[in-house]
């Protein structure tokens, strides 16, 4: 059985790590390179960096950040935020990123997924999907959750897989930052309908939430931010607890 992955997420704005609730009310959580180093040594399996800055200098700044992180950490890391072309991905991978995450650009131009997978390999391509429930249906949203689309989460996820994505990072906007647990019913449905790994995101508040998403949500990996940034959960303690619950993890 494949080991389950614990993935700290660092939202980057103007070179700093920030964290909010339901995608708003951001507060500073520290230097991303220092945090990456701490997490790498603390037992994290992977890291995700999402640049939420809306600056024209983004691509250059992000590439420099990736280089600094790659010099510090020895675990795989994924980078996302404003990636919309083969050139963007090329720069980030050359600077040391292991994978890239695309979101809005893939919705606006689904062929981008095919092109990136063909050029760099599916194993490098994560498609992030932000969705919330509207009238009982999971609807995909863009621009940090501000803009609803007409896409259904499960239909879009299937298309993403068919186009060559290597994994899906699903964030429930209803759960994001609430610390009430992951969207396990939706995650289990995704896991049942797809053949690629699903990363759970949005809602981690305690150790039991991680246990539940691996058991009930059938998630392959669990991503969290504030509970790690503000030391509410220590990764090594979390992994020991998961192991005691018969969930395979790398210690």
Approximately what portion of the residues adopt beta-strand conformation?
Answer: 25-35%
Radius of gyration: 17 Å
Helical region count?
10
Look at the structure and give the mean pLDDT.
Answer: 92
Helix content: 25-40%
Strand order of the largest sheet: 1-4-5-6-7-10-11-12
SSE ordering = EEEHEHEHEHHEEEHEHEHEHH
Secondary-structure-based class equals alpha/beta
The biggest sheet amounts to:
8 strands, parallel, barrel
Q: What's the count of strands?
A: 12
Poorly predicted tracts of residues? none
Terminal CA distance reads: 15 Å
Shape: globular
Describe the structure in your own words.
Helix content is 37%, strand content 28%. It has helices at 32-42, 58-72, 86-94, 104-108, 111-120, 153-162, 184-193, 207-215, 226-229, 235-244, and strands at residues 5-13, 16-21, 24-30, 47-51, 77-80, 99-102, 125-134, 137-142, 147-152, 167-172, 198-201, 221-224. An eight-stranded parallel barrel has the order 1-4-5-6-7-10-11-12, surrounded by seven helices. Helix 1 runs parallel beside helix 2 (58-72).
